[in-house]
Fold this protein.
Amino acid sequence: MDHIRDDGELLGRIERHGDGWVALDRLGRRVTGTTDLAEAEAALEELGLGYLAERWELETEDGSVQPVRIVEVGPERVRVKLEDFGAIDGPRRLWDLPNPAPPTLRQR
């Protein structure tokens, strides 16, 4: 089930796992192990959404590692762009990844 903040922002999902619950962030990654519902909800509230604005890297198909920023997270895909550090004339490159995000997308 979706876990939505009081302001209407989706923080992640909470899924049934055996006798308990597991919290998943917007990228489909586990935030908790199996726990009770209240703890899973609290973990997503504490995590918030700030991690989406952090520095990320993507290991591409050719094995190179590129600095990226997350620009969009939807139920089916995660869109990242090559980090341009604010340069208006920098190279533009976008990657569409599945959601849950693959392990090739990592926080730096």
Remarks:
- Helices lie at 37-47.
